[in-house]
Every structure is written in C-alpha cells, then in structure tokens.
Amino acid sequence: MGPRGRVPERRIRRTEMRNSPYQDGQLAGGRAAGSVGRVRVATWNVNSVAARLPRLLPWLDERAPDVVCLQETKLSDEAFAEALAQPLAERGYAYAHYGQGQWNGVGLLSRVGLDDVQRGLPDEPRFPTPEAPADARALSATCGGLRVTSVYVPNGRSPDDPHYAFKLEWLAALRASVADPATSIVAGDMNIAPTDDDVWDPALFVTSTHVTPAERKALAELTGLGLHDVVRDRWPDRRVFTYWDYRAGRFHQDLGMRIDLVLAGADPAGRVAAVWIDRKARKGKAPSDHAPVIVDLDTAPDGDLGPVVPPPSAPAPVRRR
C-alpha cells in the first residue's frame, strides 16, 4: 500500500499481452503507439462478470470493440484472470483488472495498447473510515494514445447517508485525477443522471440520489475540465437510457435512467463518428440491468446508428416535473 488514498498500480504481465495487436510499442501493421486511427470504445456495467460471461464473450465477438471499460465485475483479480485471460487473449485483447471480490470491480480491455496502468485514484477517499481499504472503482490506462479511465462511481445510497458525502468526495478525486483532459476518456457507471431528461420520471427521485443538485454539480465540474458527454452531444433531444431496473417490467416499457456516460476530451470528442446504446445487450436471458454505450471514433463501421439499438417497441410516456 502506498501513500494514503493511492493504490499501487498493477503491472501488466507479458502473458496478458499475448495475441494482442499491440506489442512493444507497436500496433499490428507497424503503426506506432499513439497514432491509432479507427477505434470503437465501449463501456458496460456488467453487474457480475461471472453471471454475464455467457453474454460478454459473444458480445465482444459481435460488436468488436477495441477498448472496453467494465464495471461491477464483482471478482478478485485472480478470479477475473481465471475466467477471462485465455478467451481475451484469443480475441486479441490485453486487459487490466482492479477487483474487490464480490463487490465493485473495474476492468479495461484493449486491442490498441494498454500502458501506464493505474489502479484507483490519487488521494481518493476511503469509506467508512480513512483507514479502510480503497474501493475498486477506478482503473486507468493509455490505449491508442488516449488516457482511458473506467469508473464505477459510488451510489451514495441516500442524501442523508454518509455514503453520499463519500460519493461527492470521490467525484472530486476523480476530477483531480484527469491530468490531460484533451486526450482523456472517462467512461462508466457514473450513478448520476445529468439532467431530468435522463430520468423517466424525475418526481420519483426527488428524495433520492442520482439527481441531486450536488451530484449534478460535481459531474458538471468534471465535464467542465473540457470533457464532452458524447451521447448528449450527438443526441441532444432524444430519449436515451442506459439502465433499467429489473423490477416491474421497466425495461420493456423503457422506464429507465441514463447514468452510464462516456466523457471525452477534445481529441476523441472531435473524432466521434457514431455513438449509441446497445439495447440488444440488455435483452434476453440473464442480462445486466445496464446496456453498453458504444462510441466509434473516426469511422462508423455499422453506420451512424442510434441513439438506441434496437429502439424500444412500446415505450411508456416519459414524465416531466
């Protein structure tokens, strides 16, 4: 354990780079690191890798993302490696994982390089005491010349719970960790709906977390560094959700929230060719309660899809305050 709040980085083992298109500073085809062209970036709260493994690997094959941010892996580093090291290598992915057993956990998969891996945030807060182990909630690496951070922001529980104050402190540490906003991507489950347009019924959440002014202010301070909410930039007036509670048939009625975000600096934001929610991954047997968010840089191999693929067939009306 290093200085308070800082978790030592995990060095990527050479075996984790096997079959990756990125070896010793070079990409397949001889391109130098940092000069990557077309890249598909995705973020997905899988809500347990073990439970989602039968869906995760086929999804990687179907969507072929180059960089993937995973949240709520709910595995130790050892269990993640046992489950995924070989199938990821077979698909050309290097990986990094920061696990905490049955809770939290974040991962990064990349086919365009995985350098300077950092587990956690500098000077991040701890909960419930400053002496407690750090939560496994943030993992950063340089992928294809971009600094990518996979984040699982604390839930906050309720505005009067100490975990809510911890959430705001953690968000401040996240903001402070972004050293070069122009070439950064911060992606993951933010556990914040940026505006009332990102909640199916704002009145239901008046006394809850995810929508409070303080949380939205913390998120605005993060984007204020020069990070763009690329989904809203592309689809400013559309109904877009990424999370649907398992209960009460909310997914089928499209009664959800948009809390999974891709925040991109000027470089990647200026290269966005398509951005969409992969709603198909939320359908079917044993899904996560979150859908992946997919961002294509430079070119869009599937066309300018979106905002939600496929769109819901019979959405219930969205309510307004």
Q: What is this structure's SSE topology?
A:
Elements: E1 22-23, E2 26-27, E3 39-45, H1 49-63, E4 67-71, H2 77-90, E5 94-98, E6 106-110, E7 115-119, E8 138-143, E9 146-152, H3 162-177, E10 184-189, H4 213-223, E11 228-229, H5 230-234, E12 260-264, H6 266-269, E13 272-278, E14 293-297, E15 308-309
Parallel strand pairs: 3-4, 9-10, 13-15
Antiparallel strand pairs: 1-2, 3-14, 4-6, 5-6, 7-8, 8-9, 10-12, 11-12, 13-14
Helix pairs in contact: 1-2, 3-4
SS summary, helix count: 6
Biggest β-sheet: strands ordered side by side in the sheet: 5-6-4-3-14-13-15
CATH structural fold name: Deoxyribonuclease I, Chain A
Low-confidence stretches: 1-35
Could you give the distance between the termini? 47 Å
Number of strands: 15
Oligomer: single chain
What is the H/E order? EEEHEHEEEEEHEHEHEHEEE
Roughly how many Å is the radius of gyration? 18 Å
Largest beta-sheet details: 7 strands, mixed
Mean pLDDT over all positions: 89
Which features characterize this protein?
321 residues, alpha+beta, Deoxyribonuclease I, Chain A, seven-stranded mixed beta sheet, six-stranded mixed beta sheet, 15 strands, 22% strand, globular
